[in-house]
Amino acid sequence: MGQFKSIKITPEAIEAINSFQLPEDLSFGKAMAPVMIESNYDNGVWEEFRMVPYQQLTLDPTCKALHYAQEIFEGLKGYFTHSNGPFLFRPEENMRRFNLSAARMAMAEVPEDGFLDGVEAITSYCSQFIPVSSGDSLYIRPFMFATENSLGIKPSEKFKFLIVASPSQAYFKSGSVKVLVENDAVRACPGGVGHAKTGGNYAASLLSMINAKNKGYDQVLWLDAVTKENIEEMSGMNFFAVYGEKLKTPKLTETILNGITRKSIMELAKHLGLEIEETTMKVSELLEDVKSGACSEAFACGTAVIITPIDTLGTGNGDIYKLQHAQGPVAMKLREALLNIQEGTGDDPFGWRKTLKPLS
Ligand SMILES: Cc1ncc(COP(=O)(O)O)c(C=O)c1O
């Protein structure tokens, strides 16, 4: 059992690590680490959590996840910048959110030590494959899906939990992004599953993403489903606007994912002397404020994108609003402060960084 008490490290996993060659071209989420963590839930119990070689799965065509989308996931990073680490950033937050998503999607909760030891084991054993430039990382993807086989629409009683990991470069290649306000389609509605990290939320966002790309934008900004007036978030990141020394962000509702980066930025910003306002943000007011310069910056934040300035906001009727400080001096200051904590190049006044031992 060794250091990760709840994970069995199989000899096949060690062999897979020893014979693995990291591809040269990594980009984001494409190259996969040679091992994964696996466990199955059946008859009310989880079997032993194991580290095994990364491999394909065999599924019955009637596996419920394929038909009824009973599936959840998380995303977090392991850091080994300039051979400093490996570190994780607030993994308990991901574990808690995973089990909140599980509860909303009528799925079994995963034991806390299985989740956390699994994340730590894959990071420690794969630390030699973590790219070392600032902004690069091991992107870690815990996920779970329904494995009961039958076409009846009812909650599955069997689940598979896996953790895979991808040695990755930064998510966005350029320094800032263009964001299109989505005035028609909606991502999440009250009473729905917007606050859960479940695949259907992302599937629902893809058509708008294609439309936005075709118009030259990188991302979509979602509005609330009822009034289509209030800003919610982007498809995989939360939203902030900068007003002088104040940061404004949409207050959490059941249609917004409670981002760990969002939460951390709010604490960090206060620590750096900035004011925070969590509020209902009308998109019409924001766009007016961008035009007048009252809002000088806006940025996207999330585990994958860290903090990325928004240089342009566009609307469905073709209006374009350029941010005065397109390269985001406040955003970049926060990004640096956050990365210093995550990558171990600065103090960690909040105790967010978890230091692991490199293994293998
Ligand atoms: C819809 C959505 N919003 C926000 C975020 C940012 O969350 P976090 O900062 O925890 O990565 C994510 C990414 O996980 C997301 O998928």
Describe this structure in words.
With 360 residues, the chain is of the alpha+beta class. It has 2 domains: 7-168, D-amino Acid Aminotransferase, Chain A, domain 1; 177-342, D-amino Acid Aminotransferase, Chain A, domain 2 (Alpha-Beta Barrel), CATH 3.20.10. The protein has 9 helices and 19 strands. It has helices spanning 11-18, 64-68, 91-104, 112-125, 199-203, 206-214, 260-271, 283-292, 329-342, and strands at residues 7-9, 35-42, 45-46, 49-53, 71-73, 76-79, 87-89, 137-146, 159-168, 177-181, 219-223, 231-234, 238-243, 246-250, 275-279, 297-302, 306-314, 320-322, 353-355. The strands form 2 sheets. Strands 1, 2, 3, 4, 5, 6, 7, 8, 9 and 19 form a 10-stranded mixed sheet that branches. Strand 17 and strand 18 (320-322) form a beta hairpin. Helix 3 packs across helix 4 (112-125). The structure holds pyridoxal-5'-phosphate. The site of pyridoxal-5'-phosphate has 13 residues, from helix 7.
How much of the sequence lies in strands comes to 25-35%
Query: What is the H level of CATH, i.e. the homologous superfamily of the largest domain?
Result: D-amino Acid Aminotransferase, subunit A, domain 2
Q: Based on helices, strands and strand pairing, what is the structural class?
A: alpha+beta
Helix content: 25-40%
Task: Record keyword descriptors for this entry.
single chain; 360 residues; alpha+beta; D-amino Acid Aminotransferase, Chain A, domain 1; D-amino Acid Aminotransferase, Chain A, domain 2; 2 domains; ten-stranded mixed sheet; nine-stranded mixed sheet; 9 helices; 19 strands; binds pyridoxal-5'-phosphate
